[in-house]
Amino acid sequence: MTKIKSVRTRVWNWKGPTVPPTGNFCTNASDTLWTKGDAMSSFRFHQWLTVEIETDDGTIGIGNAALAPSVVKKAIDDWYAPLVIGEDPFDYAYLWEKMYRRTHAWGRKGIGMTAISAIDLAIWDLMGKLVDKPVFKLLGGRTKEKIPVYYSKLYAGSIESMQAEAEEAKKNGYQGYKTRFGYGPKDGMKGMRENLKRVEAMREVLGYDVDLMLECYMGWNLDYTKRMLPKLEKFEPRWLEEPVIADDVAGYAELNAMGSVPISGGEHEFSIIGCKELIEKKAVSVLQYDTNRVGGITAAQKINAIAEAHQIPVIPHAGQMHNYHLTMANANCPISEYFPVFDVEVGNELFYYIFEGDPEAVDGFLDLDDNIPGLGITISDKHLHNFDIEE
Ligand SMILES: [Mg+2]
Description:
Number of strands: 14
Helix content: 25-40%
Strand content: 15-25%
Distance between the termini: 29 Å
Number of helices: 14
Bound molecules: magnesium ion
CATH superfamily of the largest domain: Enolase-like C-terminal domain
CATH class of the largest domain: Alpha Beta
Radius of gyration: 20 Å
Number of domains: 2
CATH topology of the largest domain: TIM Barrel
Structural class: alpha/beta
């Protein structure tokens, strides 16, 4: 029997060049406050956590987390690593429950569930490597020839710059395009007009034969969103994403019930029961958990079954291998989000600088290799000079 021998955690702090985002770049949860200074500070993630789990035969599984990496590292080192060391990685469902129940008083959402997710990803990567199969082949296999992807960037800026970016992206023939709003409740009617002008400008370039997704990143509130929805309807958005803060499930349900634009969310929801609530309360028309937050692949597969039974499509937040494998293996995951390779801006791009193996989209699709075992990523040393690494 293979046993887990060690758990190594590293926090990667980016110190390389960055593209500074402007004030009206993307609304976020701090945006409804009248805070002076840097409104974008809660929307920058220049740290990442890697978790490497080694078994006694020398196989290493890689997991990762991008939420509060230094705090998640401490939680893993102090609490979660001792719970899995000495165990058989193939007992993954037991290990998940053990981590979940032993830390239930404080760990079931947020930092704790992010730590569980990172370890669970490493365990799935390990299992794939140990049986010499890609993870998606352990989850149900290939449900689509290739994965269609949508382009996710188009942060708010000048209309000219956004249209130029959309023109450029269009050349790759993506299945859809997601843009971010730059204005929220505190910007009043003038801000509403600015938001609407940009959505119209996107349709002008992209036309109406592709999906257009709209992202609020929790920077609006219920009242503002109720006023915006009828105005957005004519642009036929595929969805409006995270209009209000993640805890306001009733608010999501109210907006979704308006029926004017499908509401999406879930990237800040945790665990099977958290997602069950979003589904059962009809809070979202599209569920967007992120596998490296929601509870890893073990939880995600259970959530997928609940969502499928309710006919709610699952389109995980962010690209990245842990999400691609689930999308490939589930017929109810129709498309993947795709962050183009780009200079470090928000921080979503960092995984391209830490890992190697993420597929690049070609003509609006990407594919996973049938012959690469595990998740198919390795930790790169190409950009080491641009990181401060905490062991
Ligand atoms: Mg989002």
